[in-house]
Amino acid sequence: RVINNDGSYEIKVVAKDNSGNVSNESNTKTVYVDTVAPVISDITGVTEGSHNTGVVTVIASVKEKYYNEDKYITTADVKKTLDGNVTEYQMTATSANAENARAQFTFNEDGTYEVTIKSVDAAGNMATEKKISFVVDNTLPIANITGVIENNYYQDAVAATIEVIESNYETNDVRIEITKELNGVTEQIQS
After folding, report:
1. What is the DSSP code (8-state) at residue 137?
2. Which of 105, 109, 129, 191 has the fewest Cβ atoms within 10 angstroms?
3. How many CB atoms lie within 10 A of CB 188?
4. Strand 185-190 to strand 178-182: parallel, antiparallel, or no bridges (unpaired)?
């Protein structure tokens, strides 16, 4: 007999020959037919394209009718870029223990992340992948002034050089403040 409908089946055999001899009952085998792939319904915990500080936890909601804690796997393929260096690796979520599971992946190192969530059930059915990209940035920018010497006097115009060091610098958000003090009067020249 062919079993082809989704479900959990218990199979055992007893045989009887033409003389009426009956076999002992065979050992019982439990099998599952699962033709439906897991479904990754959504990704929460971080917003697509966002810049974040602290720890980011990506949560993927996955539904699988015939979950098996030993054989049902949800993974995150990670591509992390920082200062032009690319690192690729895979993370595996804790095994599912319910039909509706939440796979969690934690990121706390600086970098631009491209994360692809994948899920495969015990029968080998693969979910449609979900992707999300975001930035983790826990490092303060560094601002330097060069080209001038602290407490030095100059006869001519002074050209100071401003340098900002930041891996995740995408916008022109640098504020330069210049104040002038002369004869006890302080004046803000530029802000």
Report:
1. -
2. 191
3. 9
4. antiparallel
The span from the CA of 105 to the CA of 122, in Å, is 21
Its pTM surpasses 0.85? no
Do the beta carbons of residue 113 and residue 134 sit within 8 Å? yes
pLDDT tops 80 at residue 24: yes
The answer to whether 167 and 81 have CB atoms below 8 angstroms apart is no
Cα–Cα distance for residue pair 191/90, rounded to 1 Å? 46
- Residue ranges of alpha helices (H) inside the chain are none
- Compute the average pLDDT of residues 152-161: 90
> 52, 51, 82: which is closest to 170 by C-alpha?
51
| Two structure tokens written together for 13 | 């055999």
CA distance 139 to 167: 9
CA angle, corner 136, sides to 135 and 142, nearest 5?
Answer: 105
Separation of alpha carbons 93 and 134, rounded Å: 19
Rounded Cα gap, residues 80 and 113, in angstroms: 5
Q: What is the pLDDT of residues 87-134, one digit of tens each?
A: 999 999 876 677 888 899 999 999 999 999 999 988 899 999 999 999
Q: What is the pLDDT of residues 41-87, one digit of tens each?
A: 999 999 999 999 999 999 999 998 877 666 778 899 999 999 899 99
The one-letter code for the residue type at 61 is S
pLDDT tier, 191 (very low <50, low <70, confident <90, very high otherwise): low
